[in-house]
Inverse folding.
């Protein structure tokens, strides 16, 4: 077997452990005395080391090892957690992340030894006065590691060797090797038992030769065992290193072993056997005392751990996103086919189609459900994006010398996988923006009677067919007069225009390319590449971004993203003999208006509807086609909304609501900003999708 | 394309000969994904005039351009001989090109092709091949599909 097939698991888990380490380290910085956190960190670091070692990434292993040593001392209480130390540890995590990134790209960890960080870690170790005996610390570590909640005592499986196995065993003994029986316990919630056992085998094989296993290696490979498997190992070395190697594999709860005596060879190797028997008892004693010690020392913690530990893992399957995409495409095809059936059926005469209509309605509900299920499969919690931000804010806080705190909510909100992958950068931009431009320095805050520590809030929640993400700070807010001055200075508008423009429109200027109001350029933000990039990125995801601000009180950026990207409910309309689709989620109401109701205000057509003035947009003019409607007739106006703004789209005719599959039109022809894509109608024709957000 | 001509002088390449306006053009067969009859084309607003719109090709939406307009020749009457040639080049998305008609497939010995220079004002043609009594201009597809 080849290790490379476990590379994906390794990468996924390393990232998980690193994220966990980041989170726990932040926690530790807040509360240095929390031993639970220290234990959790130690466990994660230890797993990471084991994994890196097994996969043969020596540099990564060495760095993690040094980090683990520090944590080991913290746990023993010989080193106290200090701010400088946490910084070094964060640097260490960054370096580890770099290794993982390298491995992901090229399956190689890179050449960087990160010697300065290792030195810094050793300095921390040495700083407690006396040089720590490193090997001792290392050897203690695995034995003292709090056994995982599920750690059941290894059940001794007695080996009944067949002829072949006996032969290879006695061959091994004849060459002076010793035989050990090793029982390995896998953690209860381990998901890839076969992979774990393989890693155990690989680790053990570096120290000795595996004669046989119970159950058979084939059964183990097929995950055909409960939580325990046993192996017979022939080795020239001692038992302990082999056990340690087995235990270093993550999700392995425990490994115990004893010397194995073969009955056939009693007479010939009696002496050896007795020697080994002595050793067996020794080892057995060591093995039983170690867990007992841990257990009695921290019984409360063990219980704690179990309660607050990992949630019950539901049965899952890892699926390649490409497979999901192709499944999604098939569902799209199915919906197109269904739509074409629907359009056929409506053309049929009444009497022949009554039965057919029922069938089609049934088909419609099935395809809709199918679509929803596939979409759900693609949904992932936004937590994976959010979780990196507390660390970022902490670093920013240090860098900028402003005390600040990040409060997050709604991490469990789910979004389409593709959106989650893309939304990280824009959110990061917004958060940096809040930290750098939004929040005032501690002195200014104190003068203004605000708490010295600034607050940044990151909230996600679902609202209809959208997911809303808010980035809010209690900082200075946007000073519209500064923005006005800047706009005039940049020649974007004249002083008169600037003064006449309302504040909420002035704020929109911030989203223009190269418009930064930061008085000094910092490397955090303020280079004028930021908000415009954020906006275009979010719009590329069919989302929108809005800003609300109050001077002296704070700023809120509101990002709205669609739940799904591929299939939407749309209103089909006719404009000048052409069919267009408008996303239903943008539509507020549909109104019938007599031509006289249209008034002109400042040269723009508006209607006065239930107390609101709504601008009218003639779609035929926007889309360069000629309306076929009689100008004297009543007009159909589709009222669309964008944030809290409304606009009325004048169309010739309504066709009705339809589920449409969004198809990209490719890169050649995407110059028209009013059109966000195309869809294929039931009759095979292509209809364009009007992006009403761009019409405002 | 120009490089290919100079490096593979001995090569015989299959070209599809099409009519557009009064001229005959050759399109390298390896870039042709499909040839389909004219069908309903959905107009797309605010795009360069040579883009006629988009079509539905087996569930995919493809942009379609008019070769005549792209080359500055007035559009002709639509007739039943018109075809849309679906071109798929490496690194590019598929695109449809409307031609007046498709004539035949010919084998062209690249060594006999007379190369044209940019100065001669034929920006969409890499070379000219003599076939029996007619001349075939070999299209530079990169120039045709780029803006």
């Amino acid at each position: 077997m080849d290790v490379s097939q476990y590379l994906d698991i390794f990468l996924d888990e390393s990232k998980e452990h690193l994220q966990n380490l980041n989170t726990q380290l932040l926690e530790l910085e807040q509360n240095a005395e929390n031993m639970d956190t220290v234990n959790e960190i130690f466990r994660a670091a230890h797993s990471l080391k084991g994994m890196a070692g097994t996969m043969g990434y020596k540099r990564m292993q060495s760095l993690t090892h040094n980090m683990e040593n520090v944590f080991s001392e913290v746990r023993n209480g010989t080193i106290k957690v200090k701010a400088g130390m946490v910084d070094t540890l964060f640097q260490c995590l960054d370096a580890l992340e770099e290794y993982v990134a390298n491995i992901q790209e090229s399956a190689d960890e890179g050449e960087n030894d990160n010697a300065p960080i290792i030195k810094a870690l050793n300095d921390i170790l040495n700083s407690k006065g006396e040089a720590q005996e490193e090997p001792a610390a290392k050897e203690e570590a695995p034995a003292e590691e709090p056994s995982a909640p599920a750690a059941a005592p290894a059940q001794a499986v007695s080996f009944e060797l067949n002829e072949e196995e006996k032969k290879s065993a006695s061959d091994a003994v004849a060459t002076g090797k010793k035989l050990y029986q090793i029982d390995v316990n896998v953690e209860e919630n381990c998901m890839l038992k076969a992979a774990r056992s393989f890693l155990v085998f690989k680790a053990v094989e570096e120290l000795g030769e595996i004669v046989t296993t119970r159950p058979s290696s084939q059964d183990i490979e097929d995950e055909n065992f409960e939580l325990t498997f046993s192996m017979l190992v022939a080795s020239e070395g001692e038992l302990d290193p082999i056990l340690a190697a087995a235990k270093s594999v993550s999700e392995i709860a425990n490994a115990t072993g004893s010397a194995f005596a073969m009955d056939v060879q009693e007479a010939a190797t009696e002496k050896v056997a007795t020697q080994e028997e002595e050793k067996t008892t020794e080892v057995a004693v060591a093995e039983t005392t170690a867990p007992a010690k841990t257990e009695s020392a921290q019984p409360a913690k063990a219980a704690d751990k179990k309660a607050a530990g990992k949630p019950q893992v539901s049965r899952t399957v890892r699926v390649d996103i490409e497979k999901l995409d192709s499944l999604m495409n098939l569902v799209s095809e199915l919906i197109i086919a269904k739509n074409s059936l629907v359009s056929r059926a409506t053309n049929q005469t009444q009497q022949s189609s009554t039965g057919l209509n029922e069938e089609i309605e049934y088909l419609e509900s099935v395809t809709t459900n199918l679509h929803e299920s596939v979409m759900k499969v693609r949904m992932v919690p936004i937590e994976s994006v959010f979780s990196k931000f507390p660390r970022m804010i902490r670093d920013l806080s240090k860098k900028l010398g402003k005390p600040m705190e990040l409060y997050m909510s709604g991490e469990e909100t789910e979004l389409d996988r593709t959106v989650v992958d893309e939304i990280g950068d824009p959110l990061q931009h917004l958060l940096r923006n809040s930290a750098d431009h939004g929040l005032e320095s501690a002195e200014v805050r104190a003068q203004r009677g605000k708490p010295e520590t600034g607050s940044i809030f990151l909230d996600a929640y679902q609202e209809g067919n959208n997911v809303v993400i808010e980035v809010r700070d209690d900082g200075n807010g946007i000073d519209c007069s500064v923005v006005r001055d800047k706009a005039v200075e940049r020649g974007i508008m004249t002083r008169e225009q600037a003064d006449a423009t309302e504040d909420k429109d002035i704020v929109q200027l911030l989203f223009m390319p190269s418009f930064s109001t930061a008085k000094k350029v910092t490397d955090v933000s303020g280079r004028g590449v930021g908000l415009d990039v954020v906006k275009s990125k979010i719009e590329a995801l069919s989302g929108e971004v809005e800003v609300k601000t109050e001077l002296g009180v704070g700023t809120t950026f509101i990002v709205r993203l669609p739940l799904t990207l591929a299939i939407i409910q749309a209103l089909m309309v006719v404009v000048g003999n052409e069919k267009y689709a408008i996303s239903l989620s943008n539509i507020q109401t549909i109104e019938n208006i007599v031509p006289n109701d249209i008034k002109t205000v400042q040269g723009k057509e508006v209607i006065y509807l239930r107390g609101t003035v709504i601008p009218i947009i003639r779609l035929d003019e926007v889309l360069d086609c000629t309306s076929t409607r009689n100008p004297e007739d009543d007009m159909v106006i589709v009222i669309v909304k964008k944030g809290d703004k409304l606009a009325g789209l004048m169309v010739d005719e309504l066709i009705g609501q339809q589920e449409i599959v969004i198809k990209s039109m490719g890169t050649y022809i995407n110059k028209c900003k009013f059109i966000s894509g195309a869809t294929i109608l039931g009759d095979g024709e292509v209809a364009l999708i009007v992006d009403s957000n761009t019409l405002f | 394309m120009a490089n290919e001509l100079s490096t593979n002088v001995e090569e015989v390449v299959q070209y599809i000969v099409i009519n557009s306006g009064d001229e005959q053009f050759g399109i390298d067969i390896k870039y042709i994904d499909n040839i389909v009859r004219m069908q309903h084309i959905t107009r797309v607003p605010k795009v360069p005039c040579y883009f006629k719109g988009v079509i539905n090709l087996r569930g995919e939406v493809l942009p379609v351009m008019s070769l005549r307009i792209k080359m500055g020749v007035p559009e002709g009457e639509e007739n039943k001989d018109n075809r849309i040639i679906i071109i798929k080049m490496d690194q590019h998305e598929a695109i449809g090109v409307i031609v007046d008609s498709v004539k035949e497939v010919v084998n062209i010995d690249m060594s006999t092709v007379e190369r044209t220079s940019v100065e001669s004002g034929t920006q969409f043609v890499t070379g000219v091949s003599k076939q029996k009594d007619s001349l075939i201009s070999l299209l530079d597809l990169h120039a045709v599909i780029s803006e």
Summary: The first strand of chain A starts at residue 178 and ends at 186.
